[in-house]
Amino acid sequence: MPGMTTLMLHSSGTGPRQFKAFESRIKGTLLRPDLRARWPQADRTWTSDQDLNAVLAEVDQTQGPLDIVGHSSGGVLGMRVALARPERTRRIWVHEPVLWGCYRALATESEVQRFDALIAPFLSWERSGTADWVGEFVDFWSGPGTFGGLPAPAQADLVAQSHKLFAQVVGLLEDDTGPERWADMPPFTISVGRQAPLPQRRSMSLLASALPQITLVELPGGHMGPVTHPLAFARAVKAALDA
After folding, report:
1. Which of 31, 70, 152, 173 has the smallest number of Cβ neighbours within 10 A?
2. Alpha-carbon distance 86 to 66, whole Å?
3. How many CB atoms lie within 10 A of CB 68?
C-alpha cells in the first residue's frame, strides 16, 4: 500500500530550509520543492501557474494520501494543489495564505481603501529588483527595521531573488478571486500569528467566518512565525497531521 506523502511549500524568499524543524518528524515521503528564483530582470509574463505545475509534477511522482503544509504564498499554492488533487489530499495546514482578493470581497469599504493605499508602493514595476523594494516588503510582514537587521548575506540573497518576489507580490495583490474560489476545499486549518499585520489577521478571520470548513488557529510570532518560531509551528502542525 502506498505510504504517506507530505508536501511543504515555503513562503516567498525563504526556501525549503524553513521547514528544517519538520525533517525528523515526518514519516513517509517528504516533498520540499525549492520555488525560489534569481532572475536577471523583471518578467511580467510569469504567473503562479508555473509554480503550481512544477509542484503538481512532483506530487504526481508519488502515490498514496497527501498532507499539505504551506506558508504565505506557499499556503495559497498548497490550497490550489488541494483543489487540483482532491482525491489525494488528506489534511491541509496553511499559515497565513495571502488571499487579498478574499479580503477585498469581505472587508468593509474603508478597510479596502486603507489597504489599497498601503500597498500602492509595492506595485510599481520600475521598483522590481531594487533593494529598497525588498526592504519595504520584508518590513511590511515582519516590522520596521527587520530587513536592515538581517545579516548582509541574507539581505543580498533576498535582493538576488527580488524580481521573482516582485512578480509574486504583484500577482497576489492584483488577484481579485473571492472566497467562492475556495468553497470546494475540504476541511482545513489556517494558522495566524498573534503579531501578524492587522490586514492579514483580519483577512484570515473574515475568510474563516465565510467558509465553515476552516479551523482558525493562533500561533506565536507573526506572519513569519514558521521561521521565527519553528518548533512551536512544527509541533502544532505535526499534532494535527497525526490526529
Report:
1. 152
2. 9
3. 30
> Per residue in 124-143, pLDDT tens?
999 999 999 999 999 999 99
Tell me how many domains the chain contains: 2
Q: Which residues contact 76 (CB under 8 A, 6 or more apart)?
A: 48, 70, 94, 97, 98, 99, 172
Task: Give the residue numbers spanning the domain of 111.
Answer: 106-170
Q: What is the CATH number of the domain that holds 69?
A: 3.40.50.1820
For the entire predicted model, the pTM comes to: 0.96
Whether residue 114 sits in one domain with residue 93:
no
Judgement on whether residues 184 and 71 belong to the same structural domain of the protein: yes
Do the beta carbons of residue 190 and residue 217 sit within 8 Å? yes
Q: Where are the beta strands (DSSP E) in 12-171?
A: 29-31, 66-71, 89-95
Determine the Cα–Cα distance for residues 148 and 152; give it in Å rounded to an integer.
Answer: 9
- Written as nine digits, the cell of 80 is 490550489
Same domain, 26 and 119: no
Collapsing DSSP states into helix, strand and coil, what is residue 219? strand
Distance CA 133, CA 79 (A): 28
In the three-class reduction of DSSP (H, G, I as helix; E, B as strand; rest coil), residue 185 is classed as coil
What's the rounded Cα separation, in Å, for the pair 236 and 88? Answer: 22
